[in-house]
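Retro notes (design track)

What went well: tokenization of the new backbones is finally stable.
What didn't: we kept losing track of which sequence belonged to which structure.
Fix going forward: every design gets posted as structure first, then sequence, in one message. First example under the new rule, 251 residues:
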């Protein structure tokens, strides 16, 4: 039998994509306990298998090699069962009994990356409805808000960004910037956009940005603030050509 003709499937990557938000590890032994609910008894630890094998080769002592065969047999059976479990959850997480909000968030990411926005939004919203931990809520709402923006569902996007602003635990400049863009380019409400940018700059100075470079964010926000100040000045001055040389500069 030519094994090279058979397809190869490394389950580590899909397992990480689906369960890494919930589990501390995606090693097979951990997945057995936490996902498959299997607890091995009298098993040879995987890290001892090479030593047992080389002891067997040197001394031809088959005393422990049978346990290695049993260990490998369990590995194969677990991988088959894990493959079936992955398929079941991806095919229909509700029928598969998925209940954890982190798993629904991960499903949202998987379907978003695959270009299936309706499914991904369903799973992001499910994660939010399941009383997810704050960091999962924030991730799900961030992805939802940007998807709403791409779909021009601006009311929903704005509500999402405003909800993200209410997070008392962690400051993130992203929703401030998105709201400022919305009021500047969609509503032409430069005063409100300027207020939001100044709020973001004040919060950035006070709390810093744990998700990226505070200096880079400060530079971006200050550029937007300067442009908005010019636009507000032109608007209040009653000049014709309201947008001046800023027309078309969006971002």
């Amino acid at each position: 039998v030519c094994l090279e003709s058979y397809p190869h499937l490394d389950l580590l990557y899909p397992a990480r994509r689906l369960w890494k938000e919930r589990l501390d590890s995606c090693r097979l032994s951990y997945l057995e306990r936490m996902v498959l609910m299997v607890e091995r008894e009298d098993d040879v630890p995987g890290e001892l298998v090479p030593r047992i094998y080389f002891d067997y080769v040197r001394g031809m002592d088959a005393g422990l090699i049978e346990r290695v065969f049993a260990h490998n047999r369990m590995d194969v059976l677990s991988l088959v069962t894990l493959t079936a479990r992955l398929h079941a959850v991806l095919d229909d997480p509700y029928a598969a009994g998925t209940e954890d909000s982190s798993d629904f968030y991960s499903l949202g990411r998987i379907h978003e990356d695959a270009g299936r926005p309706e499914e991904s939004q369903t799973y992001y919203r499910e994660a939010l409805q399941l009383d997810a931990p704050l960091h999962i809520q924030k991730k799900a709402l961030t992805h939802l808000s940007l998807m709403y923006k791409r779909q021009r569902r601006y009311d929903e996007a704005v509500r999402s960004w405003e909800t993200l602003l209410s997070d008392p635990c962690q400051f993130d400049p992203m929703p401030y910037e998105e709201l400022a863009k919305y009021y500047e380019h969609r509503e032409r409400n430069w005063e409100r956009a300027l207020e939001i940018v100044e709020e973001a700059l004040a919060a950035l100075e006070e709390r810093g940005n744990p998700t990226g470079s505070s200096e880079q964010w400060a530079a971006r926000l200050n550029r937007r603030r300067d442009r908005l100040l010019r636009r507000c000045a032109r608007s209040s001055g009653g000049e014709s050509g309201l947008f001046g040389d800023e027309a078309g500069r969006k971002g």
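Added context from the reviewer: Confidence is low (pLDDT under 50) at residues 239-249.
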